[in-house]
Design goal:
- The chain has eleven helices and 20 strands.
- By secondary structure, the protein is α/β, with parallel strands linked by helices.
- The protein has two domains: 319 residues, Adenylosuccinate Synthetase, Chain A, domain 3; 96 residues, Adenylosuccinate Synthetase, subunit A, domain 2 (Orthogonal Bundle), CATH 1.10.300.
- Helix 3 packs across helix 4 and helix 5 crosses helix 6.
- Bound molecules: inosinic acid.
- Inosinic acid binds next to helix 4.
């Protein structure tokens, strides 16, 4: 097999950045297909932590081409900062990075609307990252968006923005107390952004078609997670894009069959940032312990993450809606010393039990987990490099979550560093290896 998708199988922050960085050398191309700077992919190596928001996590490997496809978003100012940060770290993305000219641009207007709407919603806010994601995707499907390639023509940007403002967007801004942008300012921004971004903008779909025709292996890098998918997540507490594997071909303009296998990344427990259903959340001592041990604070916003136990119905849902072939289980080391451990194996609603998350409907506030307890282990796992190195109880826990989720485990992460990883010898990843 050549082409693999790596997607989040919970509420985001599963550790996809580490997994993608680790396996990227097995591929020629790494491509992001959705989301924007709401994502925060952390890659740790050589004692340094690198946070990526737009740029694929393959960028730290010289021979790997990194692409961003049409279904993603970029915030040009932040993207330029990200490029500068990479240059400072000695990584030269130029020549290895290409962003589709069809990617929609997050304008200051979108960020302002995102923040103003969240403030208006008060206690019923979504808890967005306030990066302008929802309004920028809304602009795209309402057909008043600006695309990255449009920045080449600043006058056009001004014209398109003026047209959008006239169509009612200016009234919307005023109603929310958000500043109404000046088209002439947008044109000036566009000109400055384009100077920096023109060299990394181009035809990603064509490049993917060439890679596919030549049999060059491609890694599709997801952002956020299955339960944040706009259609299949815990709507309306979701992000505004298709986070699942099915979104890949539509976003990139390639055939569905190009996605040959899908790896879902799950934490060994669960976290969520922002508001919305989280049945296994522990708001007490244990949640605090997980937050501390797992350093569970958002990469993008620094917000403390809500923490809780592994949710098997949610994982099963992720397996089904993505067609996951295998799981990568991350942060396994964090569970050492917690005894007993719990797993939600199903949900109870009004006394009746269900094990399929899609049967919850709008009854999320009445969901109670059905728990199973597991004996914990005290041994640290950070030095484990083979499945045999894990204590028997840790192996049993891993086997159980795999069984409940309905997918085999292909990779286990026992610490943030690249080396702190166990790859299952006969697992899915054995099928990928750039011909070597
Ligand atoms: P938005 O994507 O900024 O609109 O936020 C919508 C929801 O998705 C909020 O609950 C965010 O906290 C969540 N979210 C968005 N991106 C990420 C991510 O990369 N990791 C975890 N949660 C995210």
């Amino acid at each position: 097999m050549n082409n693999l998708a790596v997607v989040g199988a919970q509420w985001g922050d599963e550790g996809k950045g580490k997994v993608v960085d680790l396996i990227a050398p097995r591929f020629s191309v790494v491509v992001r297909f959705q989301g924007g700077p709401n994502a925060g992919h952390t890659v740790v190596f050589g004692g340094r932590t690198h946070a990526l928001h737009h740029i694929p996590s393959g960028i730290f490997h010289d021979g790997v081409r990194c692409l961003v496809g049409a279904g993603a978003l970029v915030d040009p100012g932040r993207l330029i900062e990200e490029l500068d940060g990479l240059l400072e770290a000695g990584v030269a993305p130029r020549g290895r990075l290409l962003i589709s000219g069809k990617v929609h641009v997050i304008l200051p207007l979108h960020r302002a609307l995102d923040g103003a709407m969240e403030v208006r919603l008060g206690t019923s806010a979504i808890g967005t990252t306030r990066r302008g994601i929802g309004p920028a995707y809304a602009a795209k499907v309402q057909r008043w968006g600006i695309r990255l390639g449009d920045l080449a023509d600043p006058e056009r940007v001004a014209r398109e923005l003026a047209r959008a403002l006239d169509s009612g967007i200016a009234d919307w801004c005023r109603a929310l107390g958000a500043e109404v942008p000046e088209p002439a300012d947008a044109a000036r921004d566009a000109e400055a952004w384009w100077q920096r971004l023109a060299p990394v903008t181009g035809n990603v779909t064509r490049e993917l078609h060439e890679a596919l025709a030549a049999g060059r292996p491609i890694l599709f890098e997801g952002a956020q997670g299955a339960l944040l998918d706009v259609d299949h997540g815990t709507y309306p507490f979701v992000t505004s894009s298709s986070t699942v594997a099915g979104g890949i071909p539509a976003s990139l303009g390639i055939a569905p069959r190009a996605v040959e296998a899908v790896l879902g990344v799950v934490k060994a427990y669960a976290t969520r940032v922002g508001a919305g259903p989280f049945p296994t959340e522990d708001t007490g001592r244990l949640g605090d312990a997980l937050r501390k041990a797992g350093r569970e604070y958002g990469t993008t916003t620094g917000r403390p993450r809500r923490c809780g136990w592994f949710d098997a119905p949610a994982a099963r849902h992720a397996v089904q809606i993505n067609g996951l072939d295998a799981l990568a289980v991350t942060k396994f080391d964090v569970l050492s010393g917690i005894d007993p451990l719990r797993i939600a194996i199903g949900y109870r609603i009004d006394g009746g039990e269900i094990d399929d998350l899609s049967d919850v409907g709008d009854a999320w506030d009445r969901v109670e987990p059905v728990w199973e307890e597991h004996p914990g282990w005290s041994e640290p796992l950070a030095d484990a490099r083979r499945l045999e190195d894990l204590p028997a109880r840790a192996r049993a826990y891993l086997d159980r979550i795999s069984e409940l989720a309905g997918a085999p485990v292909a990779l286990v992460s026992v610490g943030p560093d690249r080396e702190q990883t166990i790859i299952a010898p006969d697992g899915l990843l054995g099928a990928f290896g750039r011909g070597d």
